[in-house]
Model the fold of this input.
Amino acid sequence: MNLIEKLGLKALHQLDPETAHGLSIKALKMGLVATPGPVTSSRLKTTLAGMELPNPVGLAAGFDKNAEALAPLAQSGFGFIEVGAATPHPQPGNPRPRLFRLTEDAAAINRFGFNNQGMEQIAQRLSQRPRDAVIGLNLGANKDSDDRASDFARVLQHCGAHLDFATVNVSSPNTEKLRDLQGKAALTALLNGVIDTRNALNRKIPVFLKIAPDLTIDELRDIAAVAGETGIDAVITTNTTLSRDGLQSVHKGEAGGLSGAPLFEKSTWVLAQLSQLLDGQIPLIGVGGISTAEQAYAKICAGASAVQLYTALVYQGLSLAGEIARGLDDLLARDGFDTVAQAVGSKRDDWL
Done:
């Protein structure tokens, strides 16, 4: 992080978190944020669900909800970008305040509730996306929908032509009863509908499933079974948690999903468990608490083929993406790995 980025972050942290986030998106769109371009090497290049990535470090959904900053984000050092979540109809989300910095914990709590401008506007922006980037969309459901399961397929059908991958998000804790769709029967029906929609697209893109960290081992067994039966292409582990264990911040009691440093161990445990259950049949994307190259590497060694981050950017700036990718290259070389794939799951037993 350079001095300008440090000063910018300090200024943003004087503002309400959601206002600060909006300003960061505007700064990106105006070209006020330095972007290093693609970060890659022969060691970092990898394949995820058939997609060729310059590096395995991705931007998690939620940072660019409405696909407004695709071009600058594509030059920010990430190997792939996920935007959204998008719902069929625009919705305002939950009342503000709904985003809280937990500075003492290097964490955040949000209860946005799938606030977004809807699939029409998001698809329009995606249609003008940079073609040399790997870009996916997080699919969501409207809060007032009569058939939430079908909402995911509707968004995919509308936006799919402009995507490299799509993620079914049934793990946000901020839309009432959404996580109920993680149950085996409901999840199977939902995913089958999405897969059928994907198969009808002119170009069959990978479909991912994003799960919660607050799952028991029996629930993870069900997730693994459903993943195999439905033919999804990867599982993102994990979304935010409802746990508040060990927090220090004054905002620790706020309702919503917790992300950032406190999530690292819980999400990595889920990752390792699911890696063992799937036994390499379906790739995993590790998310939750990553703020260093060492943590990204730990996720890969626990079973992730790629990783994503978001909350750490609030505290360390956008340059963190490139820093983690370059650090990951060094760690792979240190341990004698010629590719990312060689390291995947190499230390999984440490987490079981």
Q: What stands out?
A: The mean pLDDT is 95. Residues 184-199 form the longest helix (16 residues).
